[in-house]
Amino acid sequence: MSRTPDVLVVGAGVVGLSVARALRDRGLHPLVVDRAGVGEGQSGIQPGGIRLQWGTPVACALARESHAWWRTASEELDSRAFAFSTCGYVFLAHSERALQRLTASVSVQNAAGIPSRILSAEEAAALVPGLLVETVAGASYCAEDGYLDRPQAAVAALARGIDVHIATVEAVIPNRTGWDIETSAGRLSASAVVLAAGVETRALVAPLGIELPIEPEPRHLFLSQPIRERLLEPLVVSAERQFAAKQLYSGRVLTSYLGASGDPQREAPRWRQHVRAVIRELLPILEYVDLTTVATGAYDVTPDRQPILGPLPEYEGLHVAAGFSGHGLMIAPAVARLVGDAVVGKRDPLLEVLDPLRFSEGRLLPEPQVI
Q1: Do the strands 89-93 and 138-142 form a parallel or antiparallel pair, or are they unpaired?
Q2: 209: containing domain
Q3: Quick check: 124 and 136 in contact, CB under 8 A?
């Protein structure tokens, strides 16, 4: 540690590091504490999607601000190790009811200034070469949706210039002037703490009598070996078929059975069969792509699939940024601004929507487009 920290940030993933940078920009000295190091948790295995298509105004606001930052992030972070690429996301509907849901979401997106639109099945086929649309009723599309070609490199770039202390955080304890955190390497103190530790955030605040409804939700991806030929540029999602597919910058094809649950060692063959069946129905261009690698991670989900952000009631100086339901990377820049401002006493109206009291007060805002 170069100096005594003003703020302790628990978690060295993309959210914790983004918050630390925002605090530094506000003249504070943050210290990030993580049990394993930079990007060693879920931030180290996510595929890098950055999209604008969401179904609630608050999610669209966070996504739009963050998307603008990520577009020029390689310049902001002075890094050539990663880049933002637009590819477009295509959300397919196989029924009129699903198409109505997508249409409602596009209305929300358009009201937020997001240039998404509804496509006919034929328009979707024209945008996605090789897409079969016999079972498709329509789709939604935003050409500005994209991804980071090397998301782990982006996380590493965020960490440059930030003090990161490797230790396991065992307890968060209020003191007379601020906060202590008890770690496997000793006790640290600061005037404020930001908890950005994913699902582990819940256990850290429980001894204080705070209940945060954050649960782990396992997610599994199938990945091919790199393929030189570009087979699939847009990311294609079928919520009704519980399926998503994208070819990454590296050439690897990523697919997912969104309903996968259970032990990967036992269940992966069944999941793969499901993915193969949907590929035959929708994207036979991928039929002979090997899908041998299974990558497993977990979302930290809340009941409404929206994050919990900002100060915790009755505990001055204790803040939370967790419960991202798989879209922490997508909205980390906006989250960093909101939480950074809250630490220095500025409270954005969005925090009134995403505060932890919404669960007990019945103010949930269910986000329909989590994949």
Answers
A1: antiparallel
A2: 7-46+153-214+303-358
A3: yes
Indicate whether 138 and 220 sit together in one domain. Answer: yes
Whole-number Å distance between alpha carbons of 20 and 158: 9
User: Given a cut of 50, is residue 1 above it in pLDDT?
Assistant: no
How many angstroms separate the CA atoms of 111 and 32, rounded?
Answer: 37
Residue from 233, 254, 49 nearest 129 by CA = 233
Distance CA 318, CA 172 (A): 9
Tokens of 282: 């929708």
Instruction: Write out the H or E segment, with its range, that includes residue 155.
Output: helix 151-159
- The helix or strand, by DSSP H or E, that contains position 339, with its residue range, turns out to be helix 328-343
Q: Within its chain, how far is the Cα of 90 from the centroid? A: 18
How confident is residue 174, by pLDDT bands cut at 50, 70 and 90?
very high
Q: Token pair for residue 40? A: 């060693």
Q: Which of 357, 302, 341, 238 is nearest to 59 (CA)?
A: 302
Examine the pLDDT at 299 and tell me if it is beyond 90: yes
Total domains in the chain come to: 2
Answer whether 189's CB lies under 8 Å from 108's CB. no
Is the pTM higher than 0.70? The answer reads: yes
What radius of gyration do the chain's Cα atoms show?
21
**Quick check: is 71 in a domain?**
no
Indicate whether 93 and 126 sit together in one domain: yes
pLDDT at 281: 98
Cβ neighbours of 292 (radius 10 Å): 11
